[in-house]
Structures are given as structure tokens and as C-alpha cells.
Give the backbone structure.
Amino acid sequence: MIVAGIVFLVWRRGRAARLAEEKVAAAASKVASFQTTVTVSSRSSVPSYAPSRYYSSTPPTLEALQKQSSQTWIKAGKAVSAAGFTVPDGLVYVGAELIRQDGRGPDNCLINPKLSVADPRGSVPEMPYYPHYSEVSPEARGYYLRWLSSGKRDPSVGIGYVFLYFYGLERRLMLDRVSDEYDALVGEVKRLHELYGKNYSVNRYARQLLEAARLVHSNRKFYDDETPVNQRDYELPLSVRLGVGQLLGEGKTIPWNWMFAWAVNDPETNLRTAASRAATEFQDLFHIRFDKAYPSGFKLNPPKKRLAWSYRAASASFQVDLAQAIGDLPDIVGLSGPMNKMRPIVDACMTDLDAYSRFLGRRPDGRGSIQAMALLPPDLVHKVDGEDVRKLRAWLGSVLEKGPALVDSGELLSRINGSGNVAYGRTAIRACAEVLAGFDVALMPNPRVSLQLPKAGQPFVLYRYKGGEMPDAELATYRLASLSLLFAVFVAHADRNLSANEQQRLFQLAQAAAKLSDRGRIDLQAHLQWLLAVPPELNALKSRLSALSPDDRQQLGQIALSVASVDADVRPAEVDALQRIYKVLGLNQDGVLSDLHAKMAEAAQNGLVPIQLGDQSAPGFSIPKKPQVAGATTEIRLDPDRLKAISESTQRVNQLLSKVFAEDADPSELAVEKVVVPDKDASEAPSAEPANEFEGLAPQYRGFLMEALSRLEWQRQELDTLAKSHDLMTDGAVETINEWSFDRFGDALLEDGDPIKVHSQLVGNMTRMAHA
């Protein structure tokens, strides 16, 4: 049976050879002009090889293979001509015989000059997926030789032609292992990879060859090489296994770059669009977060499994065992523990970059813009360096050169957005705060912590701070302190003459706030600076405070009394201010004097100078003079213990303030994943239905308000007449409309007085915001 099998194989090969010769003869008769000789420059003669029709099934020795290679290989820079085509730079095998490692016929890559070549006549002949020079058509050989002679760089060439050339490079690198040609061969493989690497097969096999070629040089530190990216396949790349394995073999921890390479190239890791579209930011973010979690690198005990690997040629014509070149290294393939710790970091990085990635999908040229910066995680914003960002950084540097500064709200939005046509509101302010944080600049008032925000045209306070936002656990303490400041500033502003001493007293009150971190104190100082520049408006608080229970409002009234009487010097205008605070809180205004007297009596028990109430017909209160002490100064002194008691809050007060400071969600912000600085160049804008300007206002007040908006101001008597025509009381209608207005617009529509002024632009602003 064995003999019969051998006879059959010989007969089959003979028949195939005869058929091939018949095809050669037919092709030669069609294209007689093509030459069938070969000449090699820089050589005195070319061996005259007789085509071998039969090959032994016994695998040849490596020595025999390398001997044939040396006889047929054309080195880099050596020209060779075949069938009228000249390959100017060599790097090909040319001859009659170059046996495969398994002995089963000639190697795929061998250019046999005895085989016929035909003119493809402008077409691209079909080339099989696994091409073989001796088995393709004469037209395909002609096309292949033309591609070789033209520099091997035509981007439209079929991938089969690229592989036919690639087969020769991989044989020379891995089977022949000629060290003096290593750099030229590796350089040529890299060139092919760059030109044709978009093809999956070229990309895969070129990478594998380059990885294997690294093993040709012994005693290498693989972990010093550049870590691989975008090399995902059905198995972990050899370069990752070598780099990490060598680190473990030497008892080293694994640094961030090799853990990143391991994670993103692992076939089990699910990478989303953000990982590729924002690849640089993804890697930088992983680096930052890995270093926070593993500042000394990732510690891993080497596995017992040893790394063994063989190079299987893309042509399937040979295989090389590289175990000796690798050495004794642990193999990380199959380890699940390290990836179970890395994938949560990878997933979190992709999630935090999703909004930024979607922005780049809409605006591929938007990287480095302020809009892009607003979408980046805080860890990365300092890396943005586009032209608009540099301009904004320079402007902030000039504004804050001498410390915290007041900046007009319109100018701030214009600087950040590059346009003055941005709807002013909570969304825009929050976006500004996020952008400024990327420059280590804070903004006050801040939508996250402040009870009141500036109106359009009013200023913000900008100040430098690096280190993140105030922690959530500190918010209640800060809010109590800021509300105390608001009441204190309102009282101080009561006489419309805020002296330097009063300002100093207020800053002392801010500094005395207890249980605040450095960030909290800096924020509170900035908040006070804003309150001094923009006197607080109590009406803005009324709608929020009225929802509280009587006990809660009474608690806040005690805070107002405490800050008003902190230096035992209460004037008639301040008493009037306290009465207005009581009104906003829904407390009995007539009880201010008795409550103030009780508070002063409490102060007397603590050793402070008590206030003496004079005759009610007197314009104010009579305060006894303090005895003069030798060496005493006129500097205002505050009782630190009392200030501390004012700033400390109970759990009940903290819960109370969490209700007062709770943000009302803007309808336009619902279902928005992240605040974005409005994109002035965006080609797509969401459609919006016309807003109902009077939504939320009781129907009986709408007709009155519509008529009131027809004028910029009303004499009190005229507005009384208008209110009566709608069966309304003027004061009640104005108060109801303003409460609704503060909820909807953040400001009062009707400014009480005589005349009564109408801020009709607020309704127009809301309409514009709905369409922005």
C-alpha cells in the first residue's frame, strides 16, 4: 500500500507538471515579446537551474535550506531583472529551486525565471489568498513583477501580491536568520505594514513577524521597548507576554504602560468607541488612575506556566521554535486576577470619556477647544492646549494677577464661549464653573453651593484654587455659614453706607466659621466678597423659605438675630433690616424687638455688654459706653466663642439648609448627561417647542401680569386700579407674581415701590433660552 501510494503521488505530480508546461507553452505563444531569461546585477553569472519536477517528501535540513537561500536570495540594494522587468532594490528569492521546510515543493515566494510571464494588459489578475508564484497564471506573474519593479508601493494592488512578497521577507528573517540584513528586512516589513496595514491580514501577520523578529537578538530587555497598542487578536500579543513575563521573571512590579497594554490587547476586554476615538485621552486617563491605585506598580506573583512560542509562517511553508530565544519566562496567558482589577479602571475611563468621544464624533476637529475641555474628566483638562484655551488662560492670568477679582457675567460667558449670544442661566453658569476648574480657577457664586446667583450684568468673583470641589460632607456647614453671612451683609447694608470697619467685621465673621476646610474658607471669603459688591435680595429667598415649617423658619430667625447682634451695636436701620428678614421668613415682624432683647440678655449672661432699650419714641437704642482701658485700641473685637457658636450647626439645621439650598432642575437640563458649553459651530441644534412663559402661575394672575408687562413702570395708583379690574389686591398679586418669578427666572418681575418697575425682559430671556 505504501509503494502504491508513492507511485500515485509521483504520477499526480508528473501530470500536474505536464499541465503546467502546456499552460506555459500556450502563454508563451500569446506573449512572445516577453523575455524568459534572468540577469542579476553585481554578479558575474547566474546559476542555470534545471526546474525540479519532483521533490522529496523527506524534510531537508536547515543547512540545506539556508544553502539554497544563499544561492537564490537577492540582497537589499541589488538589482535583478526578470522577463523584462527590473527589481531595483532586491529583497526577493530568484532561481529554479528553493525547497519548503517540509520538502513539499518550491517555496511560495520563489521567482522561477523558467516560468512564463504574460502581460496583464492593464487588468489586475486574480491572486489566491495563499499565493504561490509557480502556481499562479502568467498574467499574475507579470503583474507581480511590474509591482516589484515599480517600488512595491501601489496602494491599489491586490493583497495577495503583497503577501507573495512578504513570504520572502519572513523566510529570510526567521528561517535564514542572516544578522547583517536584520535592519533592512525589519525596515521593509514596517514599510509594508504602514502602506497596507489597514488590511486585517497584513496588519496581523506583519505584527507577528515584527514581534518574532525581536527574538532574533538575544539578551534584550523587552519591557524597555515601546508597549503595543491596537494589536487585539484572538490571543494576547507575544510582545505583551514577553514584556510582562520578563518583568515578573526579574521580580519587578508591572508599571502602568504594560498593564494598559495587557488590558487593552486582551481578547476578553470589551473596548467601546471612546477607547479608539479618544485613544490618547483614554491612555492618559488610565495612566493617572492606575498610578493613584498602584503608585508602586502592580505586584504579581509569577505564574508557574512557562512561555513557549513558535513562529508559523504566513505562507505555511515553515515553522520555527523560538523557545530557546525566549528563555525561561513565566507566561501570563490565562491569568484572570490582574484583568479583573484592571477592567473596572478601563471601563470607568471609557465611561468618563463617552461625552467627549461623542463630541469628537460630531466635531473631529474639536480636540483642544474649550467645548471639548468642558467635557473632559477633571484629571485631563490641564492637558488641553488649543488656541482658544491659550487665549482664555492668558486673560485669566491678567484678571487674577493681583488676586480674586470681580468679573462681569456677560464678559465671562463671552470669553468662555467666544460669543456674546449665549443664553444666560444656571446651565451656562454651571458650564463656566466646569471650564474654569480646568484652569484651577473657581467661580462664586457657584450653582452647586450658593443660594443666589448673579443676575445678567452682575459680576462673579473669580479666584484661584487647585484641588477639586468642596466635599459633599462639608456642604451643610458651608451653607449655614454662607446664610449667616447673607443675613449679616443684609443688615450691614441697611444704612446704605458700608464702612471699612463693617467690612472688617464681616470678614472676621467669615474667618470664624467652624468645621470648614481650607477650600471651604476660601469659598466663603469669595462669597462674602460678592455679597459686599452685590447686596443680597431677600425676596429671592422667600419662595424657598416659605415651604419650611414654622419651627425651621424660627431657627433661621435666630441665626439672623445672632449675626445682627454679634458686636452688640444695633442701629435703627439694622432693626428695620431684621424686620424685613422676619417678613421673608414668615415670622412676626413685631416680635423683632422682643427677640432682639432676649438675644442681648443672653449675650449679657455670657459677659458681653447688653443693649439697653430706650424710649420707643427715641430714634434708636442707647448702648452704655465701655470703660476705657489703658492701652486699649479702637479696633472692633468679636467674641471668638460666640462666633464659633453661631457657625456651628446641629443636624436638624443641616437638614433644614439642605432643603433651602436644593437646586430646582431646569426643564432644559433634564436628560442631559453632562453640562456642555454651548457649541457655536455645531451644525445640529435640538428643536424646541415655544415655552409657556406663564407656566406655573395661577390662572387668576395671568391676565393681570400680561397687562402689567405692557409698560416698563406703573404709578402705584394706576396699578391698584389694574389689580381691582382683575379682582386682585395689588400687594398680594405683586408678591405672588414675584414668588413665581423667582422660581422661574431667578429674579423679581415687579420691583415694589412707587413707581413700580416692570422687568419684562425676564420673560423674553426665558423665551430665548427655550429656543437656544
